Amino acid sequence: MGGMLEALQAGLPGLGLSLPQGAVEAMCAFGQALLEKNQVMNLTAITEPEQVARLHFLDSLTLLTLTDFRQKQVIDVGCGGGFPGVPLKIACPEMKLTLLDSLGKRMAWLSETLPGLGIEADCVTARAEEEAAARREQYDVAVSRAVARLPVLCELCLPYIKVGGVFLAMKGTAAQEEAQEAKRAIALLGGQLERLPVFCVEGTEHAVAVIRKVRSTPLAYPRRFGKIKQQPL
To answer: Is the pTM of this model over 0.90?
Structure first.
């Protein structure tokens, strides 16, 4: 845990962030729980504590520099082991967080683990395209990390966001190419690409597509996943 703590504390100034008291320790406690559970369940391919700090926590926290999460309704679509949603909630406890993923065992672990660490989140086991009907345009911010190509990801996430809200899609080195691919999808779904900032964490670059919701998403979307995958917008 010491290495994780030191790596987190060393990386925060580079992002221009200062966290609430106890937040770094809470992240380390969550990271430790993640690594322990990872021995019996596939939660992360990153198993070195220092790398968990840099490539999971600091990577997730870059989103705090892009919008104000305070008092916002936030959904993490395809949250996996809890990223980027859990670090964001620890860093900004005023947000209201929904974690959404289709893998029940993963969500059961998050449901059991987070309350013991004092982290409040609504953990929902569902497919994103199916749950959208029940939660349509209820969120100020949607976040997602490396779940699918951007045209597909936009159809899964933009229906959840209120008009005026924002979608923060964390992407890798192909971000520019994916943004070009997604132009039609973004427009059809009521979005507008505002910018594509690039961050460098641990020598690895990632970009974030900042997509503003400017119009309601037509009720025809999202489609069934088979259709989304076969015929991306």
So the answer is: yes
